[in-house]
Design goal:
Layout: E1 2-14, H1 23-30, E2 39-51, H2 63-78, E3 81-82, H3 97-115, E4 119-126, E5 132-135
Parallel strand pairs: 1-3
Antiparallel strand pairs: 1-2, 2-4, 4-5
Helix pairs in contact: 2-3
Bound molecules: nickel (II) ion.
Amino acid sequence: MVYVSRKEHFNAAHKLYNPDWSEEKNKEIFGPCSNANWHGHNFELIVTVKGIPDADTGFVIDLKKLSTIIRTTVIDKLDHKNLNVDVEFMKGKMASTEVLAMEIWKILEPEITKVSKGVLHSIKLYETPRNFVEYLGE
Ligand code: NI
């Protein structure tokens, strides 16, 4: 089994805010991340596909195709957007990096299957160089 990864980048704004809670509780749990007027991050997204290299191409997945899929189905919808307001697939959800990684998985998994015998292995999403999440689909 070989693991092939593609890294992409986007900027987005968000806030962490639970509408079921009081202002005080939001402040207590989320701190400055609950700031009403948003804040931004430079996100790094790493998508890893696993599989056996194809006998004819030597590829698990054509990285040009993977890059195009990630850009058209995910990055174009997130880049320079507000995760809480502008992004259809985040509507009604907490705009945390964890939830965003799970939603990106849902979008990419079927698209990758269309162009490769490999399967999606992981979504790594860096919110900052030091804070990142990894989702393996379960
Ligand atoms: Ni944040």
